[in-house]
Amino acid sequence: MSQHVKPKKGGFSSSETRSKIFFLAPALFLVFVLSIFPTIASLFLAISRYGPAGFGGFVWLGNFIDVLGNRHIWETLGTTLIYVVCGVSLQYLLGFGLALLLTQKLRFRRFFRVLFLIPMMITPVAVAYIMRMVFDFRIGPLAPIMGIFGLQDVPWLGNGTLAKILIILGDTWQWTPFILIVMLAGLETLPHEPYEAAVVDGATPWELFWHITFPMMLPVSSTVILIRMVEAFKIVDMPIVLTGGGPGVATESTTLFAYSTWRSFNLGQVSAIGYILLFTVTLVTTLYVNTVRRRIAGGM
Amino acid sequence: MNKRKLLVGSLMGVALLAAVGLLAAASGQSSLKYAGRTMTIVTFDGPQIGEPLKRHAPEFEKLTGAKINVVLTTFSDLFPRILTDFTSGTNTFDAGVFDPQWLGDYVSGGYLEPLDSYIAKTPSMKWNEIMPFFREFSATYAGKTYMVPLDGDFQMVYYRRDLWANKQFKADFAAKYGYALVPPKTWGQYNDMAEFFNGKTVDGVKMYGAVEAQKRNAQSFWLLGSRAGGYMQYKGTTQGMFFNSDTMKPLINAAGFVRALTEWKNIQKFGPPNMINFDTGDVRSAFVGGQAALAIDWGDIGSLSTDKKTSAIQGKLGAVILPGSKEIWDRSANKWITKNAVNYAPYAAFGGWSGAVNSKSKNKDIAFDYLAFLTQPENSDEDVTLGITGFNPYRQSHFNNDSIWIKSGMTKEDASNYLGAIKSSLKSKNLVLDIRLPGTDRYQKLLDEGIARALSGEETPQVALDGVSAAWDKLTDELGRKKQLTIYRASLKLKSLEGN
């Protein structure tokens, strides 16, 4: 009964093509409205002078030259990279570790699974305000502990390095659950056979992890890290609530820089900053993906 | 059968009554001036500013039939959000309550309705009872009135009257510094007093010498202006403090500003360890919570001090005009000069929340009437005394009527001290006007960054302010030096320069 179906070569007018267009059109329309149009519009703004009085003529690369000629953008890109590298690394280590723990036969395992997810479900600004209370070591919930060690009067958010660390910690508190949930899902799909064979050969728990679990989880790990990296480049809630970008410009991310430029309604420059950030994210993630792909292809 | 008739009769009676009632209600509604119309007004969600706008809406609706839709947004988003609405032609907002400093951008774009003719026809708002500064400067731009003041804004120094009256403290202070402990008249004295009280334990609380808002992207622009006024401006309001009024060259890196910023950084030693991360909210809670001897803020601490639940300083509030200096920077001679008397230059920071009407609105009449309703003494007399609002006194009735303050929970002494400080600022002929130019927000943002770099120690005050000066100069060129100079001079009530 098998039947060879010859693909139809009908043109635009064929019913199959029409139905394809019919079903694709809504999605294409949404992509155009929500993605392509804003990209084109922001490119128009990026090469224009556009302020409170409206369109003030084309300046072509003028906004890019102004922004890139200002040390401020380089400082914020450096700070953002610190957030991305340190924050995502910490989140990955913690998330993977907790996911491994939750695959063990622990009591209240299900309860912990839900508990660990709570930070991710809270809106980022609310998390930032929670962190602001937590990091107030004079009257916050950690004040008694900090008092014991005499650390209450340390200007935690008044020192650039310490403030960066606290922002990374706050971001980690919120986003580790995301890595946890993805890694946990990955761990639960791993086959049992390689582990059984390795155990028969006398492998230690560390050897099981390093030679079986970690390599098999590499595709999941690289994906989750990539998603978090792209997100981390856009960090804004935590620095704006905790420090406003200060002290000095020590904790200011590029997105916060863009936001404060937008506040002044300098739409040309804010669009240029957006494109610079887009270029940076694309560059860093491409480098990352190529590196990971080579590693996976070469078997680590 | 009789029962049935009775039932039918009753139902008919009820229906008739309902119909009559509905008709009466409808005729009542339609007799109201703005029945069936909705006016949308946007402001800051603080809730200090949104609260009174929402609270008074039902009464206005009852009186006029209009529906008042109050849209709230964060302070950071307020300026661009209104501008987006105006520039895109969406015109969702019929009116807004915002910072008068933004008039430069809004009026230049033709987005606001001149209100002079509306004001002339509305005696109930008692326009002439609004204090002259707010009426003639804050509300106006290029000779026309665009705003209805709802708030009076001056920064001043707050101190704890009980500490300054303490005999032991008085004796110790005099012994250490060689002069009497009285409210500070100069920035040098302010610094001494902050140092003296820092670390002292009062009522079981370890005190900080002073609390001030130094946080990045917050209010530091205005705090620096408050500290620089006494050094920079001494020839009266028309002298101006921010730019050379002949060339539009920035004065922001002049020695007076550098000295003010240097002193401001030094005050960190006598404040909380995280003071560099304090905004006005932190300043207010620290001072009203009884943790600091001195604070600089707008009038809000006065009304917040009356709250029995949160205030530890009720009956202890002292307030004075911003300190000045006997040493003044002479910008034309490029040297410090010394005067016999203290030069006070109170800074009209921000200028007070005020309402304006969208020139493209279809509800200009409702928008103006609602603003007039808010400002009339019957409503504003109460608003300025409530801690929850961000509105501070700005009408004669707010200053001449102690009873409204005592009713709000202030002691007579607190009230007279607090209002006295505001009055002395308002009476000053050397009041420093805030920047009101197209691009004000961009000038402020650049200065905010420079201040932050200096306060964090990334750069010296001189280097940081040199950087700000260069950036301001570039911005002025971008926006048009001639145009900016004309507007700057107009804001100082100076004649336009010929040839400019």
Structural class of the secondary elements of chain B?
A: alpha+beta
Overall 3D shape of chain B: globular
Radius of gyration of chain B: 26 Å
The tally of strands of chain A reads 2
Beta-strand content bin of chain B: 5-15%
Total domain count of chain B: 2
Main β sheet profile of chain A: 2 strands, antiparallel
What is the level-2 CATH architecture name of the largest domain in chain A? Orthogonal Bundle
Biggest sheet of chain A, strands in spatial order? Answer: 1-2
Rg on CA atoms of chain A, Å = 25 Å
Strand order in the sheet with the most strands of chain B: 2-1-3-15-6
User: What proportion strand of chain A?
Assistant: under 5%
> In one word, what is the shape of chain A?
globular
Query: What is the level-2 CATH architecture name of the largest domain in chain B?
Result: 3-Layer(aba) Sandwich
Write the layout of secondary structure elements.
The complex is a heterodimer of chains A (300) and B (500).
Chain A: H1 15-46, E1 48-51, E2 54-58, H2 62-68, H3 71-102, H4 109-121, H5 124-134, H6 143-148, H7 160-187, H8 193-200, H9 205-232, H10 237-242, H11 254-263, H12 267-297
Helix pairs in contact in A: 1-12, 2-12, 3-7, 3-9, 4-7, 7-9, 9-12, 11-12
Chain B: H1 2-31, E1 38-44, H2 50-64, E2 67-73, H3 75-87, E3 95-98, H4 103-108, H5 116-120, H6 132-138, E4 140-141, E5 144-145, E6 148-149, E7 156-160, H7 161-165, H8 167-177, H9 187-197, E8 201-202, E9 205-206, E10 208-211, H10 220-232, H11 255-266, H12 280-288, E11 292-297, H13 300-304, E12 317-320, E13 325-330, E14 335-343, E15 354-357, H14 364-375, H15 377-383, H16 396-400, H17 402-408, H18 412-427, H19 440-455, H20 461-479, H21 481-491
Parallel strand pairs in B: 1-2, 1-3, 10-11
Antiparallel strand pairs in B: 3-15, 4-5, 6-15, 7-11, 7-12, 8-9, 13-14
Helix pairs in contact in B: 10-11, 19-20
